[in-house]
């Protein structure tokens, strides 16, 4: 890969990292600020309230997917990426200054809700814009590898959030963290977003977008629902193939720390350290799996994920509940994250490879956001509901069932590795053979 490709990947990934830092610190610090916005009650009820607001953010993601996906297809990937980080910065500032229940009653929770709606709007467009940008910015034989950096940057954002949490846990008292220390990560997130805004204003547009000729989507129809409806089969495919992956991902990332502390009984510091260490290994696995998909195809990795998640979720979650200490919890967490790497490392490029350039951003954004709103955003709330109802193991079967549905989709879908992004949607006779590694494109 050339220097120009690496530069595009770096700028796209840096912005994605800050976006997801802001998104995930809400989940990782929820145990500290849950009591600040809601009246006294049992700890699980408070977490359910904050998890409910977390889920609401997901329901704005389809709106963000539609709005920012339209911008990405009509104005360019750069314009969409710049707008997403602006919205994320505003939401981080709102959370940082939100008044507590003792000061403004439920007014503070209302501010928190508005901030989460803005975050949902932003992330709804960020995923598709970055997935499309990273996929289009890479050489054809490196698309799996390049697009894997989306989850590297997403995970890096969470690692930074957890790392900051570990530092604060060791330098501040529990009382200070519950009182005001939880605001610190949101202030840092707002500052980071301002830096990324500058970087994205100077980023390069992808050649695929700039050089697209007639790809079957008329100029006036780019980024429209009419054009998306013409590719409705691909849109429904995105929803189905996302279902199992997003539930598993949020289970073993955002929910894992709470599960280890609230269900397995590990101290918060130990639970945070388990997640932190596991996610570092997880981030390192993404490019390796992405590169493997460039050699053997996307479907083998997706099928491996779905089979593993279907049959291993229940035993892994059951053993995690009785892990008891750091090392067993870390080993089981790593096993789970290795399994879902088959999905996370390549799902960005698989979705982008399904659509023509003129509808690619919206085609990835809207159906993916819908799937996340239904399955990803509710994962934590559903898990806590099962726990509050005294049937926590029911959630394990729910995750396994979602993976089983996606497995059926992976087995029936076509391979996308060899698709020419500039010619998706054209008649088969017009398509060129795949560019082999080391070959030049005229």
TrEMBL record:
Fetch the SUPFAM superfamilies from UniProt.
MFS general substrate transporter
Q: Which UniProt keywords apply?
A: Cell membrane, Membrane, Symport, Transmembrane, Transmembrane helix, Transport
Q: Which CDD domains match?
A: MFS_KgtP
User: Where does it localize?
Assistant: Cell membrane
Q: Which InterPro entries match?
A: H+-coupled_symporters, MFS, MFS_dom, MFS_trans_sf, Sugar_transporter_CS
List each copy of the Major facilitator superfamily (MFS) profile domain by range.
8-418
Mostly located where? membrane
Q: What is the lineage of its organism?
A: Bacteria, Bacillati, Actinomycetota, Actinomycetes, Kitasatosporales
Question: By what name is this protein known?
Answer: MFS transporter
What are the TM regions of this chain, as residue ranges?
Answer: 20-38, 50-68, 80-98, 180-199, 235-252, 272-289, 301-320, 326-346, 358-375, 395-413
Which family is annotated? Belongs to the major facilitator superfamily. Metabolite:H+ Symporter (MHS) family (TC 2.A.1.6) family.
Membrane topology, as annotated, equals: Multi-pass membrane protein
Q: Which Pfam families match?
A: MFS_1 (PF07690)
